[in-house]
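Thread title: Can someone regenerate the structure for this chain?

I was given the following input by a collaborator and told the matching structure tokens would be attached. They weren't. Posting the sequence so someone can regenerate them.
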Amino acid sequence: MDAIAVVLGRPRELSLQHLLLADAPDCLTVDIEWSAISTGTERLLYEGRMPQFPGMGYPLVPGYEAVGRVAQAAPHSGFRKGERVFVPGAARCFGEVKSLFGAAASRLSVPPQRVVAIDEVTGERGVLLALAATAYHALSIGGDGRAECVVGHGVLGRLLARLIIAMGGDPPVVWESNPERADGAIGYRVIDPTQDDKRDYRLIFDASGDAGLLDSLIARLAPRGEIILAGFYSAPLTFSYPPAFMREAAIRVAAEWKHEDLIAVRNLIDTGRLSLDGLITHHADATSAESAYRTAFDDPSCLKMVLDWRAAR
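Best answer:
Regenerated them for you:
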């Protein structure tokens, strides 16, 4: 079998290519319906700024947010043909083309333990499961009802705010300095940080990915307050020690989500406690991937771009 895939040959060199799928008898074969473009991780890969991870390099297939249907499944896999699933990358099926991420393709072979079955009605919104799981994981390490402030009103920030409410917390304040991204709040308020006079936040979640914000966030903490870094940062993070010392500030890093986080957010979605509405703003056919990536990276009105692969097979 083969697949059509987005391939980054090197930084800023993106194309669609036909790739052979390596034989993987213990893997599921999934025909992808939709994949999403990450303006964090994939942008770093596109620009050549991604910190080195084991298994990373060029050429590569990007992407870790895909939804499709099982085309082939071994009897012991726990999945059935035709079942709709979320695939968080890690396909590892394209031979010499690296697929540490690997979800931006028309067809994938993927280990069944990486895949999560989703409800039919979730549809294309299922591509958001990875970001929802990222938010859930960050909350699980420090979201004991004290979460008061979220920095950034992109998709991750919105999901953090929605999950805080869904998990029984008080609605947080969300900071957003870009007026084009201030709309779309559900049950919480969004303000420009320059308009916020509060200086005693006990817990701040940073979903901005901005490595230069730590000093300004520390200045807003209450004594023994905590900052949880929920985004991904390509540049070194530094901060001035005296203000952090005076507050006995804590800074915690939220690592990658786990499989159980995917299951938890899927259950919240299925029971109606977590809404994914309004987070996908742009769509493109997979054959227009090059222009779609430019829009995702350069258009501030684009929260989440989804590629449609259904006509690409």
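The two ends are 11 Å apart (CA to CA).
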